[in-house]
Amino acid sequence: MKPVNVVVLGGGLVGCAAAYYLARRGAGVLLAEQGDLNREASGRNAGSLHFQLEYRLIRYGDELAAQFAQIIPLSLVALEDWRGLEAELRADLEVGMHGGLIVAESDADVALLERRQALQEKWGLASQLLSAAEVRRMAPYLAESVIAAGYFPHEGHANPRLVAPAFARRAEELGVTIQSQTRVTGLMRDGAQWVVTVVDRAGRTQDVIADAVLNAAGAWAGEIGALAHLHLPIFAVPLSMNVIERAAPLIPHLVQHASQRLTLKQVAAGNVLVGGGWPSRFSREGSAMSTQRRADPVVENVMANLTLAARLVPAIGGLHLLRSWTGITGITTDQMPLLGAVPEAPGFFVAAGGAAFTHGPTYARLVSELILEGRPSVSIDLYSPARFSHINSFMASV
Ligand SMILES: Cc1cc2nc3c(=O)[nH]c(=O)nc-3n(C[C@H](O)[C@H](O)[C@H](O)COP(=O)(O)OP(=O)(O)OC[C@H]3O[C@@H](n4cnc5c(N)ncnc54)[C@H](O)[C@@H]3O)c2cc1C
Questions:
Q1: String of DSSP letters for 17-43
Q2: Residues near ligand 1 with C-beta < 6 Å?
Q3: Between the N and C ends of the chain, which has fewer C-beta atoms within 10 Å?
Q4: Domains along the sequence of the chain with CATH
Q5: What is the 129 CA–ligand 1 centroid distance (Å)?
Q6: Which residue's CA is the closest to the ligand 1 atom numbered 26?
Q7: 339-351 burial: b if 16+ Cβ within 10 Å, else e
Q8: How far is the CA of 218 from the centre of ligand 1 (A)?
Q9: Neighbours of 323 (CB within 10 A)
Q10: pLDDT the model gives residue 287
Q11: Chain centre to alpha carbon of residue 41
């Protein structure tokens, strides 16, 4: 196999987008995906384009919320990236950015909205706090129990089944070699280069030589890190999602709750997607949990998720649930992405973690600039893997 500039590890949204942005800058790229493209988190998520601080970032008290709010500068870049994505990829991605509401049902919820609003303002995201009357005017489909809402006019959603494949198509047009059913099993340095061992769909083992590797393995990014004798503190978590039957257009917004797990939206086809980070359960392999198999839905969580959705939008209460499914995503110890170079392993880059449907195209674009030009057009220092150097400095290089 001829040497390439960059091997991209993982064929979710981040990997497919990075392959595209790298090739657009002239790099020779091979993308290795152990299964099929877009079959994991990137094709199984809720499709929300979150720019306000999600509930998971605000729920652990002021100090941590202030730390987690550092994601906002990246969100503002992602917002601009999403505006241009359909034109860039020459594809309909069902992007709709008609605004997002984070709703409050109690005084405690309103206090959370106010704290969120202050943090968002501090980092330059201009959201508004709407009164009950304003919410009623803007979103008459919401229940009377909603007494306020945080509103940001550019939130929305896109279709997760379309985005990574569109990047992959464009990447292939630019000459990227995409190998699905190809698992990365080894990573070794050889002087200034990396030797990436892959096992392809026929069971053949091959070594690929590359100037750089990009770990875009999502929830499995820690396992890829371990192949390079690195610790990347990212953990796999299993979540669930639900889709409700089609209805006439009713909900133009992305709806979230101030203090509970909920995202709710009506997609182009009229179906209502309900999620928000409710846990599912890893299936077991012996006594250990397995991240290699589909996680199992937890019926009580599905019910609680749907009950909350129907309480907030009474009109969907009579509609049938069509399907629930699960997906595995990666969360770092500090909820920030791992984005950039790993200082202890020259030529090893990572782009993983966080809300990487919203931020994935932006991770990919910026990390490609870093790999090929030495610096990205927007600083990503806040998310650098260097913040875990206190761990990796104990790890000898491979
Ligand atoms: C149910 C659910 C709902 C979500 N909702 C949202 C949302 O609304 N908005 C949002 O912004 N984010 C959401 N997320 C998070 C988002 O989906 C993920 O952050 C994002 O898709 C991660 O993309 P990725 O490309 O990094 O990872 P993935 O899409 O998981 O891709 C990683 C790929 O790496 C491959 N891989 C792993 N190990 C190897 C190996 N050894 N060799 C080769 N390939 C390997 C895997 O097979 C996989 O295909 C949600 C996640 C879930 C699970």
A1: HHHHHHHHTT--EEEE-SS-TT-SHHH
A2: 9-15, 32-35, 39-42, 44-48, 50, 183-184, 216-220, 224, 239, 241, 263, 275, 327-329, 352, 355-358, 360
A3: N
A4: 4-42+161-233+334-392 (3.50.50.60), 98-155+236-332 (3.30.9.10)
A5: 32
A6: 218
A7: bbbbebbebbbbb
A8: 5
A9: 10
A10: 85
A11: 8
Q: Over 90: is that where the pLDDT of 49 sits?
A: yes
Residue nearest atom 53 in ligand 1 by C-alpha distance = 327
List the residue whose alpha carbon is closest to atom 51 of ligand 1. Answer: 45
Assess whether pLDDT exceeds 70 at residue 1: no
96 alpha-carbon distance from chain centroid: 17
Q: How far is CA 320 from CA 242, 274, 306, in A?
A: 11, 12, 10
Which of 206, 329, 339 has the most ligand 1 atoms within 8 A of CB, as the residue to mutate? 329
Nearest residue to 193 via CA among 8, 394, 64, 5:
5
Query: For ligand 1, what atom is nearest to the CA of residue 14?
Result: 25
pLDDT digits (tens, 9 = 90+) for 110-155: 999 999 999 999 999 999 999 999 999 999 999 999 999 999 999 9
Cα atoms in the Cβ-side hemisphere of radius 13 Å centred on 263? 27
